[in-house]
């Protein structure tokens, strides 16, 4: 079996894992951003009251 | 409670994915004609079914929203669609890489490939539509209708390999064909990786849904802050 076959298998599996990993990172970043916004809004309201 | 579910699911998904990767790379033999590259199928096919699972969830949640008018269903539909798009992207790109070595081309305007791309674009359009509408109830209503119509493209994509016999390989799973077309060891691995990816999809939908709840809380607090 030629090397290209193994190379393409590697790139196929790496792409599958990579795309899912990118989406997980995006989810984690969004979660962090939302938590920050929520905390700062809660603090702001407490200060105003 | 949700945090515990997320942790348990996360650990389960991690173990399953790593175990499957090990078996795919080191335990399973090469396919007779294709060689090692056929291993891409263990992600290509389960990712497709994980995406379908998400789109079915979006279809049911969108229908429920139109019946019950509860925004929670809208959030479920949106979360499932976004996660479904990620899995459909895995399906499309891994298929292209396999096609490059097996067919000699990255892409063919074959019925299945074309419908899979149309399906991805329609659901991407669903997310774009949501960005364009500010009013939550109007956004939920329009998105729900689009999601229901969009599901037609999922059904056509699924049946495309039976309706039009073109370049894409035909159905191989015994539960669909009723015949054992591939080695049972290979077929079982496809189911095992579907289990792993489907569990990952459920976890991602739960996380995304939780973020939607946080966004609603933020919007509520912003209105309150303006009112004070």
Number of helices, counting only DSSP H or I runs of 4 residues or more of chain B? 7
> What percent of residues of chain B are in strands?
under 5%
CATH class assignment of chain B? Mainly Alpha
Number of domains of chain B: 1
Main sheet properties of chain B? none
Radius of gyration of chain B, CA atoms, in whole angstroms:
20 Å
Based on CA inertia axes, which overall geometry of chain B fits?
Answer: globular
Tell me the CATH architecture of chain B: Up-down Bundle
Mean pLDDT of chain A: 93
Residue share in helix of chain A: over 70%
The count of β-strands of chain B is 0
Q: What class, by secondary structure content of chain B?
A: mainly alpha
Describe the structure.
The complex is a heterodimer of chains A (49) and B (228). With 49 residues, chain A is mainly alpha-helical. Chain A has a domain at 20-49. Helix content of chain A is 94%, strand content 0%. Chain A is rod-shaped, with a radius of gyration of 21 Å. The longest helix of chain B has 44 residues, at 184-227. With 228 residues, chain B is an all-alpha fold. Helix content of chain B is 81%, strand content 0%. The mean pLDDT of chain B is 94. Chain B has a single domain (2-215), classed as Four Helix Bundle (Hemerythrin (Met), subunit A) (Up-down Bundle), CATH 1.20.120. Chain B has helices at residues 2-27, 41-68, 71-102, 111-132, 136-163, 174-177, 184-227.
């Amino acid at each position: 079996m030629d090397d290209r076959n193994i190379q393409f298998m590697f790139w196929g599996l790496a792409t599958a894992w990579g795309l899912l990993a990118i989406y997980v990172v995006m989810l984690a970043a969004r979660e962090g951003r939302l938590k920050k916004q929520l905390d700062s809004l809660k603090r702001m309201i407490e200060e105003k009251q | 409670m949700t945090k515990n579910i997320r942790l348990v699911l996360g650990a389960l998904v991690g173990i399953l994915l790593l175990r499957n990767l090990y078996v795919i790379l080191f335990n399973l033999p090469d396919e007779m004609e294709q060689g090692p590259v056929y291993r891409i199928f263990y992600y290509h096919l389960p990712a497709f079914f994980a995406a379908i699972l998400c789109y079915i969830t979006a279809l049911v949640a969108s229908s429920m929203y139109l019946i019950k008018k509860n925004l929670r269903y809208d959030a479920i539909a949106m979360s499932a669609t976004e996660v479904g798009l990620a899995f459909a992207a895995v399906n499309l790109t891994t298929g292209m890489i396999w096609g490059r070595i097996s067919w000699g081309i990255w892409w063919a305007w074959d019925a299945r490939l074309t419908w899979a791309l149309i399906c991805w674009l329609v659901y991407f359009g669903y997310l774009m539509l949501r960005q364009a509408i500010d009013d939550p109830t109007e956004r939920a209503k329009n998105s729900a209708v689009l999601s229901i119509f969009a599901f037609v493209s999922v059904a056509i994509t699924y049946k495309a390999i039976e309706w039009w016999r073109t370049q894409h390989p035909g159905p191989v799973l015994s539960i669909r064909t009723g015949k054992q077309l591939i080695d049972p060891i290979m077929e079982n691995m496809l189911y095992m990786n579907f289990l792993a990816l489907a569990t990952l999809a459920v976890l991602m939908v739960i996380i995304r849904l939780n973020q939607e709840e946080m966004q609603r809380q933020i919007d509520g607090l912003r209105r309150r802050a303006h009112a004070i």
